[in-house]
Amino acid sequence: MTAAGVLGPPTAPAGTTSRTPPGARLAWLHLRTRRVPAAIIAIAACAGLLRAALYWHWTFAAGPYAQQVPMIIEAGAAAVVAMTAHSPFGEAERATGRCLPYLRLGTAAGMCALAIGLLQLGVIGEGLNGGLPVLARNVIGITGLGLLCSLITGGLLAWTLPMGYMVFAQYALLEAWTSPWAWPVRPPADRGAWICACLSLAVGLLLFAVRGPRTELSDNG
Amino acid sequence: MNVNLTEIHRSFGKNKAVDGVSLELGTGVFGLLGPNGAGKTSLLRILATVLPPSSGEMALLGRDPRASAARREIRRRLGYLPQNLGYYPSFTVVEFIEYFALLKEMPVPAVPRAVAAAVERVDLGPKAKAKLRTLSGGMLRRVGIAQAIVNNPDLLLLDEPTAGLDPEQRVQFRSLLRGLGESSTVLVSTHLVEDVGAACSEVALMSAGKIVFRGTPDELTVRGEGHSVGDAPLERGYSAVLAEARS
Amino acid sequence: MTTVSLPLAGPARALRLELKRSAVPFLLPLLAAVFYYNTVRTADGFPAVWTLRASVIGDHMLFEFSAFAGGLGAWAGSREGRRKTADLVTTTARAAWARLSIALAGTLAWLLLAFGSGVAVLYVKTALQATWGGPPVWPVLVGAAGVTVVTVIGFTCGVLFPGRFTAPLVAVVTLFLYQVGFHAVLGIDPVPGIHGLGSGTYGLLSPAGPPPNPDAGVYYRIAPDLSVVRVMFLAGIAVALFGMLGLAPGVRRLASPRSRGSVRAFLAHGGSWPLRGAALVLIAGGLAAAVTAFSLAGTARLDPVGGWEIPALHAAASDRPLPVAEDCTSVATLRVCVDQAFSDDLSDVADALKPVAGEIAGLPGAPAKAAEVASMDGGQQVMSGTAGNPPVFEFTAEHVGPIFGDFNAPADDPAQWRAPFQTGLLDAFVAGLAPGSGQHAGPAVPPAGLAAQQAVVNALLTAAGTAPSEIGGNELLPGQPSAATWAAIGAATRRFLALPASARRAWLATHLTALRAGTITLAQVP
């Protein structure tokens, strides 16, 4: 008998082995803790609402105000993505290994892409003013704001800055502002608007991945 | 008798959490022991009028809690500390206890003094104005006890009250229990048999939803004579009764 | 012994705790920033007329408050679910309804305080600038009802669905309903009937809408009919939802998988019967009020002065015109008068009309006075024109014609502001237009004659220092003239402009009658 036999890993009890790779298993558990399945349903509801708005002509068909209603729904979807930032574990999770920043980054970026995809699915066959580029840019930029907001207010109140920015953008729409920071009102190919929206997401993702959401305020309410 | 239960059943789907429990409790401190999943918390929640029984008769403080007016009166005279205490982290200790005093419809002029007394009784005077999020787990537990006793309840239900308390605080808590038991019915659900031995005049042991033992701590100790599982006499009695119930 | 002093009594103490620990104050800076950028800046762009400035309460302020009120209401309502205190608070004696009401009141109080502060800022700014009238109350009541109902909607959703995504979804849905109502009011893309209900009614009930005419409430009172039904509708929904809170614990049990949806669970946990009865009464009463308001709104019709009247609520006294007081000044030979509500604009109007008045002073039919009149009459927009003896040029606060008010914010360029006044005066003088409702009233003129009139107008405008644009300078010509016509008009304009001023005046003195009759062609313009 050698030491290797004693020091080797114990045999797992019967019925507890899993064929899922540990990385995928970790990612799935992480997504569940962030209530991602419920978030997908919430975003799908937003997509349904957008489709209904376009199908029943509850929004301006064209012109400068055609963005008013879609912007509200896109901001809502982005807010839902930002709220997946909330962790139910607080400090206990932060005291773990190196995976957490990558999990945060992957979840937020993946949810942003998923939100764009679901919203775009919802408008297939309908005429969305500005099309996919404007929809994607809005979700990208406002998600970034939501992630930044989570650093201050915590994940559960991360919807506040996206909603506030959306109201601000509604006014910018009426006033036909040309500033690239008012990206929801800019034309689809406006480079400055794309830079600002992508910058918002990039900074939001980076800071959120590294620092994570604040645990006070939203957890203390 | 402040508590009168007759053939109480409570099921969650196919799981019989409480299976035909009959219990009469008067003034004093009673311990409720049992392994995990025995039904202690479910029984406490039934007594706290949070959970209605599936069947059976019960009278709390001389009233049938099925009637809403009676239930309200019971709750005025009830104190309850759940196993998992939820709280509002931004509240201070005083604010949290005051909030529950007001919810219990205590006479308003009596609230300030009652809150102060409750804070002192759990030895949290220096932390009275501290926010709950700044407190340790043990201190939070004491805040939970304070909100349970602020209205000088006639029926006090405590689920794992000493979780997180250090030994000195547990000694103080047992003394508190004994004092409360002189005029109220106190039912303590716990895993810590030494708490039961030190503070309780009677103990009941639950297993699989049923009460398998009812008697004094000394009687439980006697049941453990000759039984090898357990480091203390009361533990051996506990193990012996459970083993018998399971066989 | 620790001493604590609690000066308040009763549920007020619990409310004090709620107010102290509410999450709303933390978000007030963000709300204030949005309020400034959206509401204050829009209001600052309107003339200092009370009704116009107050219109931003429903159009803008309620929108930005709804974005937060619904979400914060949901946040407060979901507290017991989020903090896992449901069991603990259930064992207390105070009824769940009372407990929830205190939590709701805490959140609502902060939001109404913020709303009231915003209204105060708006009204104080207006009071410092307005020259006539006083602060209207109905927009504030409608706004407060709107904030209340959105908060109650959010709170109720939070109680029933204490999930983390309830807050943003509530915010999205309330803003969505707000905007849908806005579009229905504008009627640009009519909302199709839903379940047989009238398409326009929902739009009327929405507090949002385009800004009123700039002189709304100046010449005639604004009938409160629509505001009454809006308050009734919003308050009815709020009351009904508040009643639902009284049944919420039972509803939650009903929906719980463990209760198997049993009515017994609902009855066991719904509270005492008197409370349930009160809850049902509130639900029924609130729904009745909302349905009644919806029905009343369906009977609304446009009144002659551009507002809405609801026959069942309308008081004939509100149709009487308000006493008009003018503020006047004189420029050249022209006396310029505006309603005292627009006194701040008098000098700008006079400055705008002065150069063109100088061009036509002393000519036959030149007006001796320019006076502001109501922009709506008999349900139609009033068009500018000259009438009476001596002739008076009548214009409206809509800048002399069917321009879409100040919705797009006034032009920053003073020339753009002056041009409509100058064009309107010259059009009326050269073409002999009389004021009318819905369309200019003038003699029937063949196209060739209209082209000559347009050329003369353009020349006089240019002489006054304003460059005529194709849009601003072709009110006399029907449709879109061809490029050849524009070229010919331009040539005639340049010829006439090249004449000395005295020669222009001399020609006009002898040819105005023929020009107005349309018998002068472009070739005959010197």
Features:
heterotrimer; A: 221 residues; mainly alpha; 9 helices; globular; disordered N terminus; B: 247 residues; alpha/beta; Rossmann fold; 6-stranded mixed β-sheet; 3-stranded antiparallel β-sheet; 38% helix
Brief sketch in words of this structure:
The complex is a heterotrimer of chains A (221), B (247) and C (526). Chain A is an all-alpha fold and 221 residues long.
Set out the fold topology.
The complex is a heterotrimer of chains A (221), B (247) and C (526).
Chain A: H1 3-7, H2 22-33, H3 36-55, H4 68-83, H5 91-94, H6 99-122, H7 131-153, H8 160-175, H9 191-211
Helix pairs in contact in A: 3-4, 3-6, 4-6, 4-7, 4-8, 6-7, 6-9, 7-8, 7-9
Chain B: E1 3-12, E2 15-25, E3 28-33, H1 40-47, E4 55-60, H2 68-76, E5 78-81, H3 93-103, H4 111-121, H5 137-149, E6 155-159, H6 167-181, E7 185-189, H7 193-199, E8 202-207, E9 210-215, H8 217-223, H9 233-246
Parallel strand pairs in B: 3-7, 3-8, 5-6, 6-7
Antiparallel strand pairs in B: 1-2, 1-4, 8-9
Chain C: H1 11-21, H2 24-44, H3 50-77, H4 79-82, H5 86-90, H6 96-129, H7 138-160, H8 166-186, H9 199-205, H10 225-255, H11 263-269, H12 273-298, E1 301-302, E2 308-309, E3 326-331, E4 334-339, H13 346-360, E5 369-373, E6 376-377, E7 380-383, E8 385-387, E9 392-396, H14 414-431, E10 436-437, H15 447-463, H16 483-498, H17 501-517
Parallel strand pairs in C: 4-5, 5-9
Antiparallel strand pairs in C: 1-2, 3-4, 6-7, 7-10, 8-9
Helix pairs in contact in C: 1-6, 2-3, 2-6, 3-6, 3-7, 3-8, 6-7, 6-10, 7-8, 7-10, 8-9, 9-12, 10-11, 10-12, 13-14, 14-15, 15-16
Shape of chain C: elongated
Rg of chain B, alpha carbons = 18 Å
Biggest β-sheet strands, sense, barrel of chain C: 5 strands, mixed
Secondary structure: helix percent of chain B: 25-40%
Between the first and last Cα atoms of chain C, what is the distance in angstroms?
Answer: 105 Å
SSE ordering of chain C: HHHHHHHHHHHHEEEEHEEEEEHEHHH
Report the count of strand segments of chain C. Answer: 10
Structure overview:
The complex is a heterotrimer of chains A (221), B (247) and C (526). Chain A has 9 helices and no strands. Chain A is mainly alpha-helical and 221 residues long. In chain A, α4 (68-83) crosses α7. The longest helix of chain A is centred in the middle third of the chain and has 24 residues, at 99-122. Chain A starts with a helix and ends in a 10-residue tail after the last helix. Chain B has 247 residues and is an alpha/beta fold. Chain B has a domain at 1-29 and 40-75 and 187-247: 3-Layer(aba) Sandwich (Rossmann fold). In chain B, strands 5-6-7-3-8-9 form a 6-stranded mixed beta sheet, sandwiched between helices. In chain B, strands 2-1-4 form a 3-stranded antiparallel beta sheet, with helices on one face. In chain B, 51% of the residues are buried. Chain C folds into 2 domains: 11-301, no CATH class; 326-524. Chain C has helices at 11-21, 24-44, 50-77, 79-82, 86-90, 96-129, 138-160, 166-186, 199-205, 225-255, 263-269, 273-298, 346-360, 414-431, 447-463, 483-498, 501-517, and strands at 301-302, 308-309, 326-331, 334-339, 369-373, 376-377, 380-383, 385-387, 392-396, 436-437.
